[in-house]
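PT: before anyone asks, these are the final sequences, not the draft ones from last week. 998 residues across everything. Please model them as a single complex and drop the result in this thread when it's through.
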Amino acid sequence: MSVGSTTGKRRHPGLNLHESDAHPSDGEVMFGFWVFMMSDAVLFALLFAVYASLGVNTAGGPGPHDVFELGPAAMETLLLLLSSFTFGIASLAMKYRRGMALLQGMLALTLLLGLGFLGLEVHDFATLQGKGALPQVSAFLSAFYALVPTHFLHVSLGCVWIVVMMVQLRMSGLDRTTRTRLLRLGLFWHFLDIVWVMIFSFVFLRGML
Amino acid sequence: MDGDGGFRRELRDYVVGLVLALGLSGAAFALVAWDPWPARTTLGVVAALAVLQLVAHFRCFLHIDLKQSHRDDLQLILFTAVIIGLMVAGSLWIIFNQNQRMM
Amino acid sequence: MRIEVLAGPWLGRLSLSALPTDSPVAAGAALVAVLGALGVAGYITAKGRWGYLWREWFTSVDHKRIGIMYVVLALVMLARAVIEALVMRLQQADAINQSGFISAEHFGQLFSTHGSIMIFFMAMPFLTGVINYVMPLQIGARDVSFPVLNSISLMLTAAGAALVMISLVLAPFSTGGWSGYAPFTELRFSPGVGVDYWIWAVTLSSIGSTLTGINFAVTIYKKRAPGMHLFRMPLFCWTALCTSILMIFAMPALTVATALLALDRYLGMHFFTSGGGGNMMVYANLFWLFGHPEVYIVVLPSFGVFSELFSTFSAKKLYGYTSLVLATMTIAVLSFTVWLHHFFTMGQSAHINAAFGIATMLIGIPTGVKVYDWILTMFRGRVRFTTPLLWGLAFLVTFVIGGLSGILLAIPPVDFLVHNTTFLVAHFHNMLIPGTLFGMIAAYQFWFPKAFGFRLEERWGRVAFGCWVTGFYLAFMPLYVLGLEGMPRRSAEVFDEAFRPWLLLAAGGAVLIVLGMAALVLQLAMSIRHRDRNRVTVGDPWDGRSLEWSTSSPPPEYNFAEVPEVEGRDAFWTMKRSGRAYPALDRYAPILLPENSAIGPWLGVLGLATAFGLVWRIGWMAGLGTAGALFAVIGWSFVRRSGRTVGERQVERTETRWHAALVAAVPVSREHECDPRNRGLADVAA
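LR: through. Structure below.
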């Protein structure tokens, strides 16, 4: 059977799979997802630029010093970094066929860490509201609430995606579709980590200085 | 199939990634918490740590390196970095200049 | 009473008062839109074609069908936007020291819809459609990389267009122009739903375009036929690649701009407001971070089309292929460095203006290289003045004039003088009409025989060409003069008697352009009527150079029975000259194609529902639309698709029929390419 792709002989690097498990057109899917992530990265970069442009405009409302706290941010960072690691183990469990239990277990652990991160962030947002730091108060807070919740939304979608993958793995095991989907989910999850590193460095830490 | 050896080697990559990530973020948080230097210096160091961590994540978690076969992704990421650089630096240059002139 | 019933909580701000009953012009337009939609729906119902449309078109993931649907969408929207332009020109010619026949409010809506439609729902769908149709064929692929995503992109764009059409009936639309500048578009100054229509229509289309860009870029990167190295690709594919890259990286800026504006309007935040620390300049900055690359998104594909035209109709290989590729890439990168020239007067320091002014002038260099390459392609060639080539020639001359006025505008002090006058309107129409529209019309004339199997009538094509080009010069050259005389753009009324002759001339030009539009419609109707005498089934009516001409017209759904091996540039031209074209296969293999999918149309409908609900603050509709879209995607991910196989028997039947036509056809020399002797087989000995 002849399939459209013909230049797929060269394997794509994002395709972290065994030769025998990788289909020529899988590389295309991975590359497409990389391109999407880069487009998404531009979106985040612009939200950062907006935050940097408007961050000084507190309009008499609370400033970064009044609203940010180091502790919760550090906790959130820890959870997210650990979740990237557990996802890494999940990818290895898939690649080296270390059994469905390990794969599902690691995905579940990643999901829990992700949900923990989301829970802490919700708590953070609630604390901010308590301090009167609403998005309507000033341009600084508007920009903050555009940037950080966009990341929050991405992580939430990532969590939904993990749940969907766990169900699909249960239903149909590891096949071509679930394999490449897990790889893409992995890229997405690690990418969100990078965005978070930028957020804690340039929003929270910079704001605390 | 490169069974155990491959698994261990790749696992080591992830462990190194995690240690680097925790170490670099921890350093950044610690710097801000203890605040030993003037704010500008700390900010510069925090930014440098962030960039280092970015590279570490790309290398250890996203498997981007300088191998010939990985060039597609690397070029894509570098091109994105250039575009982001142009957009963000240009925007800040323009907006900060205007802010200054309005003061 | 009735109005209050309708305006219940489940209908948000929507009530019967949204109907444009106060102005006869607006009411007429709404009526035409409703009757048109009802007429089309009635016709389809009467013919019993809904099932066919759903199965064969709306759910199709074939890049060729999706391409055609994009172009149809673009042509419908073009018709509306051209008529709006005519109304505006007539209004300005009429409203000299008097109020004219439409209100200032309505005039504001007209220039906003005209601009938004022309960019987002005419130029973008048109070029996306042409790339969709042509690019996979040119690189020897069977489809794009992500066929279902392609259908989703189309339907999101169509949903945005539908929202703009709905705003004609459930008015009003925004009066903030196509760029929607804050703070005018903030809730405080534009309290109605108009700006919300603009925000959501544009957001839908920009999501669609981002996905399209990803799809095209990956297709060009990963789906080329064996031997089709990047530097062997037809130039049109290069421009498609650069346009896709621009879409991928520039569209997010628009998404951010409209999303933040929406947050301001819906949740009372302070990004671009005048108070609360907001900064309206951040909006202008974000918008043009997208807006300037957008100019090249819509221009580059036309450059590609013209490159194909000049070389095909001069029977010469493209002069300076490599320089054209490098120029295209240079333009793509430089286009990210000049956005500030759209707001030289916003108040930054002179040195910043100077930097961006110089960057702007730099873009003229690669563009100039291209112009010389095109001229030298024709130099000493056997140039055939077919309709597509005529558009190309008009483009060359007109585009250079527009480019020169652009160099003037790139000088900040000059820009300060003519800022916000019709000089600017003249300039960008002088770039975009030849640089985008002429290119797309030429592409339509050039590739129509490929898509439908018969040529378009030359005569009406020439009439359309004459009307458009003359109309363009009449309509826009006076605007340069008016601009220098100080006439502000976007004026519903003017107060200087000296403007009258120029405005009358411009209105005359607009009438001619509308006639040109009508001639295009007539050309299509006449061509369909006389299709039998213009059939080019064999598939190569113009002695083409690239792979799309090596298939039958229209091409089979699988494009190529066997994916061709490419050995150099101008692949098909070389094959013909060396006798390797039309290889007869002794065995056929079954071909795997993607299955049709209903997810695209569903996401389009749900996207439209979400957007409509958001515009009129109908919470349940927006909520259901969003949740529905999320569940549709998740549900769709559970469907296992194995693809659809076209059996070898069917391939053999199709190919045999085509080869029979090939054998029966008489090769036609170039003197006869525009008469009925042309059956699509080129005489390569001549």
